[in-house]
């Protein structure tokens, strides 16, 4: 596999910025959608890397109560908002939100939650992805909902560089102690574009899974995996998906775009990769063949992988209903209970 260091970054200390907010979920008397919408009100006006209200929505464009919107958060989850995890050379401040379970421990497993939105929109604290953060915390994980730089201002590899920086920040001794996590038990969860980033986080690193930006487990839903133009067209992606990928890569001519290979998690698969959970809906707009080929390649490389295909055309966290939540949580619990030691 190939590994690229994050460019133009510097770690930020563990001290809270003046904008950091901490609160505890007090009640869960309404649906997950309404509860998280209310909670996200604490976040209005804090947008260091900047989607406005029109672009901060999740990739779930339907108003229906589906997927993660069927989750109701229990009381007692502690949420710390807008924690700085890094800055960039241009002064961009990168932030994440932390959702902590009620149970205190110095050895808790952690999961990075990576929002979707075509690499061009979305936010860690929109109602749907706040619900993901709360759900992961309700399962006993310390969840870190990560913001990253977006298209059009920042094309590949800005987003994955940011996510890798976040993983290193979470694992650092001072931050592991601050939030009571086991730095050897860090996983990643993402949907759609965030699923691509979670998968790339899992495959493109090198070395032990408890070091640097590596993670010990990856769960992703509806991720575009092979971003080479020939593969995207062959798999049947529509023109809109093709345009989204082209804008993300930022190449003048996609067919000759070296970044397409570097941005594809499938490029870097080898036997050192962590276990994967891959979820997809049969008829959604990201072609199912992308997930099927990815799972087959992981399996061929000797990487543990679970492929879950569900009926319908819902996308990303739109398929994260109670049944899928149970499967993903079970996978993460198993994979992070005793992280596998990768082969050299």
TrEMBL record:
Top-level lineage group: Bacteria
InterPro entries reported in the protein's UniProt record: AB_hydrolase_fold, BD-FAE-like_dom, GDXG_lipolytic_enzyme
Keywords on record:
Hydrolase
Return the protein name.
BD-FAE-like domain-containing protein
Matching entries from Pfam families are given as: BD-FAE (PF20434)
- Coiled coil (residue ranges): none
Specify the BD-FAE-like domain's residue ranges: 96-298
Q: Which GO terms describe its molecular function?
A: hydrolase activity
């Amino acid at each position: 596999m190939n590994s690229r260091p994050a460019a133009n970054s510097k770690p930020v200390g563990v001290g809270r910025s003046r904008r950091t907010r901490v609160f505890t979920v007090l009640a869960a008397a309404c649906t997950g959608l309404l509860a998280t919408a209310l909670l996200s009100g604490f976040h209005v006006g804090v947008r260091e890397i900047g989607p406005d209200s029109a672009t901060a929505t999740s990739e779930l464009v339907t108003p229906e109560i589906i997927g993660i919107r069927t989750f109701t958060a229990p009381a007692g989850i502690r949420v710390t908002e807008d924690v700085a995890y890094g800055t960039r050379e241009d002064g961009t401040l990168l932030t994440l939100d932390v959702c902590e379970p009620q149970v205190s421990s110095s050895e808790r497993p952690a999961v990075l939650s990576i929002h979707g939105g075509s690499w061009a929109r979305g936010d860690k604290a929109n109602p749907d992805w706040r619900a993901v953060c709360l759900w992961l915390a309700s399962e006993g994980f310390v969840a870190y909902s990560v913001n990253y730089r977006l298209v059009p201002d920042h094309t590949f590899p800005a987003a994955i560089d940011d996510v890798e920086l976040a993983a290193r920040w979470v694992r650092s001794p001072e931050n592991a102690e601050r939030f009571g996590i086991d730095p050897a038990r860090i996983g990643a969860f993402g949907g759609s574009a965030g699923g691509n980033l979670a998968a790339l986080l899992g495959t493109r690193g090198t070395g032990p899974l408890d070091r640097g930006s590596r993670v010990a487990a990856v769960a992703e839903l509806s991720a575009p995996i092979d971003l080479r133009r020939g593969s995207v067209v062959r798999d049947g992606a529509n023109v809109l998906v093709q345009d989204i990928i082209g804008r993300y890569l930022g190449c003048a001519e996609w067919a000759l775009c070296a970044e397409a290979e570097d941005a594809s998690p499938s490029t870097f698969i080898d036997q050192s990769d962590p276990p994967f959970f891959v979820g997809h809906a049969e008829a959604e707009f990201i072609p199912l063949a992308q997930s099927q080929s990815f799972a087959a390649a992981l399996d061929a490389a000797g990487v543990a992988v679970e492929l879950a295909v569900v009926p319908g055309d819902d996308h990303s966290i739109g398929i994260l209903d109670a049944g899928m939540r149970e499967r993903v949580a079970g996978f993460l619990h198993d994979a992070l209970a005793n992280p596998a030691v990768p082969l050299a």
